[in-house]
Description:
Blueprint: H1 2-15, H2 19-32, H3 37-49, H4 53-66, H5 71-83, H6 87-100, H7 105-117, H8 121-134, H9 139-151, H10 155-168, H11 173-185, H12 189-202, H13 207-219, H14 223-236, H15 241-253, H16 257-270, H17 278-283, H18 294-300, H19 303-312, H20 323-333, H21 338-353
Helix pairs in contact: 1-2, 1-3, 2-3, 3-4, 3-5, 4-5, 5-6, 5-7, 6-7, 7-8, 7-9, 8-9, 9-10, 10-11, 11-12, 11-13, 12-13, 13-14, 14-15, 15-16, 15-19, 19-20
Amino acid sequence: xxxxxxxxxxxxxxxxxxxxxxxxxxxxxxxxxxxxxxxxxxxxxxxxxxxxxxxxxxxxxxxxxxxxxxxxxxxxxxxxxxxxxxxxxxxxxxxxxxxxxxxxxxxxxxxxxxxxxxxxxxxxxxxxxxxxxxxxxxxxxxxxxxxxxxxxxxxxxxxxxxxxxxxxxxxxxxxxxxxxxxxxxxxxxxxxxxxxxxxxxxxxxxxxxxxxxxxxxxxxxxxxxxxxxxxxxxxxxxxxxxxxxxxxxxxxxxxxxxxxxxxxxxxxxxxxxxxxxxxxxxxxxxxxxxxxxxxxxxxxxxxxxxxxxxxxxxxxxxxxxxxxxxxxxxxxxxxxxxxxxxxxxxxxxxxxxxxxxxx
Length: 359
């Protein structure tokens, strides 16, 4: 009984978005009753949300061993596989969850998300709608449905779905972020900034949310504010090359050249091929679930970022082919003001020689 009580307290704490406290309760429940499958599955859910995918997967598998009929464990395992890019395996787990519990609404919504990523839009819509039939209050299903009309060019319908999701769950950060991206691409800047800022406030531990907000501020010329958000992202996830590259471009534009060089070198250490594909660079801040087209987002990434990352590519191995990116960057460079072009040449000299240069 005590183990069940700790498991229940963990659920409450998870609902209150207190993940560390929830983990402590679930671990206490497991300590008291190692065979309590629900506690393992619930612990897996929190670890998954914390980005600890391997640990989450281990807990889901223990839960499934203890209770092979536990649909929720298969649903959770599907999420970890999805985050590892194993879409077909994720689909199999979600379908297994639905087979075990056809009324598990979240499994239908999650399956819809994967089908959307696979381009199976009609099947995705069917799963999202089934989820809403089972649970009309499911915000994540409306979030999923928002991507369908967006792909069809129906902006108002997409916005309506995201707003419905927010109405149902005002604290769902990813929906605010998705809505903000769409509004920004369609030049509704004030609304977009409000949504992006809100997403970062709701999920302060997400590097992705801070970086997304930063790209908007960057594009609007709010350099110092953008640097703050990018640095918050870096503090949470130092391994993302694009975050360092974007900070470097801003520092360079602010004439803080030594600091810019440090960031650009760090970016190339993390990903020597960063500048090899500008579309990938522009799209790297976009979660596949965001439903924002990379072509649109490419226009939201400032042209200075594209050029500076390409310039920094000269630090990379000689066998990397940057010619397509260099062609595009040189074309864009002609539109820069004279001050910018002078600084670009100065940084180029520094990068080519790998010497410290004072600009």
